[in-house]
Design a protein that fits this description.
The chain has helices at 2-15, 24-31, 33-52, 56-77, 81-95, 103-106, 108-125. With 126 residues, the chain is mainly alpha-helical. It has a single domain (2-101), classed as Orthogonal Bundle (Helix Hairpins), CATH 1.10.287.1080. Helix 1 crosses helix 4 (56-77) and helix 3 (33-52) packs antiparallel against helix 4 (56-77).
Length: 126
């Protein structure tokens, strides 16, 4: 699968300079990160709905759309698939392939900063 994602990533990067009239990818990239993120979220929701409804075929089709939009997000953010694979390898070494790290284990400083900012907003409202 990583080969397919790598090929897709390469195609997305190539499409950046394509004519947006002819290329959906070029059009999406030119629309900006907000639109790209919205498309990713829409596809994720579609996968979830299809999974809940037990529509296996739709889950497969929508998952392909979800992966495409995730790769577009990576390209827009300057993230290479190899960076994601490296992070997955790191996590596998810590907890096994089928486990997800708790957020507190990923970025303790960032989480603390976020909590401090949230507390400031609450105090400011009072």
């Amino acid at each position: 699968m990583t080969d397919s994602v790598e090929r897709l990533y390469g195609a997305v990067l190539e499409a950046r300079d394509s004519d947006p009239v002819l290329s959906r990818t070029a059009r999406l990239l030119r629309a900006g990160r907000s639109k790209i993120a919205k498309k990713l979220a829409e596809e994720a929701i579609e996968v979830v709905i299809d999974a809940v409804n037990g529509d296996r075929g739709a889950v497969v089709r929508e998952s392909a759309d979800l992966l495409y939009n995730l790769v577009v997000v990576w390209a827009a953010a300057g993230v290479r698939p190899s960076e994601v694979w490296k992070e997955m390898d790191r996590r596998e070494g810590l907890f096994g392939i089928a486990e997800k790290l708790m957020k507190r284990n990923l970025m303790p400083k960032a989480r603390a900063k976020g909590q401090a900012a949230s507390q400031r907003r609450i105090r400011h409202r009072q």
